[in-house]
Design a protein that fits this description.
By secondary structure, this protein is mainly α. The chain folds into two domains: about 150 residues, no CATH class; about 160 residues.
């Protein structure tokens, strides 16, 4: 006579097969996205541009036709971006000679600093490191050249993704709401309301996250730029722009960008200024974590910092820098959709109970 199955074992088995199904679905989704990651990145860029320009486009469309409003907003944002990049390029070109001279002097001061206590490195060890670096560059010159040539092919892929992203943003800005309404109308009647609720929650969270991360990144960039300028660190504007883009990777991006700034400060201005920049890393990290994120992004991203950190690391492992950027908004949107559908179910049960 077969023995009855324990209720605990039956419950564990039911959860186990559900977890297997969910894991398989997640694996299939990531496999498809990995196979067509250029398209996924382009659509994501289109959604980011749409989230940033949706409000100004809608406001301008009240005075002019919608196609003209979309064109004006896209052209205006493109001109603004190109202007910022031109400013950065001129700053780099104008300070290149000074930067090379300061770097050479700074490297000499770093070597003398390492020769003194507490490091007491011998000059021979430092010269051996320089000789080995020069030997590596000379012996791997062909490999580095081939990698640079292959980088041209990657540039073509990047330009293609950007072009597709702009095309997606044009379509989304011009009629994204109508496209979503048409999509919902094609679904079975029993699923339309749930999909509509999930779509509204997802878009609300995604736009809130996009606006919030831009505000956080701009604030960090301004603080870093002013601090580096006051400290006399060269390339303050390019380093501030690097901080702006690095802030799109929560918890990790800003420290990495400021670490690069600290290396520049160490080579150009010495260890004292570099120590001040390191202190700046701590201060800006505290401002970002305890002031900017709670004030600006608390409504959009209701995730524990541990969840954010794990999401960023997992995204970086799965898809590199792109995965680190996409991970937090993806997890935030997923959680907001789950919460919205759960509240809708609870509301329906309460209504049915009444």
């Amino acid at each position: 006579m077969p023995q009855p199955v324990s209720p605990l074992l039956r419950t564990a088995a039911s959860y186990a097969w559900r977890l297997l199904v969910v894991g398989t679905a997640v694996y299939v989704v990531f496999a498809v996205l990995g196979r067509f990651h250029e398209i996924a990145v382009a659509v994501f860029l289109g959604l980011v541009v749409t989230a940033l320009l949706w409000a100004p486009t809608r406001g301008l469309a009240r005075a002019v036709p919608r196609p003209l409003a979309v064109t004006c907003c896209l052209l205006g944002s493109t001109v603004l971006l190109l202007g910022v990049l031109t400013l950065v390029g001129e700053a780099v070109a104008g300070e290149s000679t000074t930067l090379v001279r300061e770097f050479r002097a700074g490297l000499g001061s770093i070597e003398r600093w390492l020769e003194r206590p507490p490091f007491r490195l011998s000059p021979r060890a430092l010269s051996d490191v320089q000789a080995k670096a020069a030997e590596y560059l000379s012996s791997h010159r062909s490999t580095l050249l081939s990698q640079a040539v292959s980088g041209a092919g990657h540039l073509v892929h990047v330009l293609t993704v950007l072009a597709l992203g702009v095309f997606c943003s044009v379509l989304f800005l011009h009629g994204g709401d109508r496209q979503w309404a048409w999509f919902c109308a094609q679904l079975p009647a029993s699923a339309r309301e749930r999909v509509a609720i999930a779509g509204r929650a997802a878009w609300r969270t995604f736009t809130g996250y996009t606006h919030g991360i831009v505000v956080v990144a701009a604030t960090n960039a301004v603080l870093v730029g002013l601090a580096l300028y006051l400290l006399g660190v060269p390339l303050a504007v390019p380093l501030a722009l690097l901080e702006f883009f690095a802030a799109f990777i929560p918890l990790i991006g800003s420290p990495v960008a400021l670490a690069i700034a600290a290396v520049v400060a160490l080579a150009a201005k010495g260890p004292v200024v570099a120590a001040v920049v390191v202190a700046l890393i701590v201060v800006i990290g505290q401002i970002e974590g305890h002031l900017l994120h709670p004030l600006v992004m608390s409504r959009a991203v209701r995730l524990h910092p541990l969840v954010v950190a794990i999401s960023v690391v997992a995204g970086a492992i799965a898809a590199g820098v792109v995965g680190a950027v996409v991970a937090v908004p993806l997890v935030s949107v997923t959680w907001s959709v789950h919460s919205a559908l759960r509240e809708a179910r609870l509301g329906a049960r309460l209504t049915a109970g009444d």
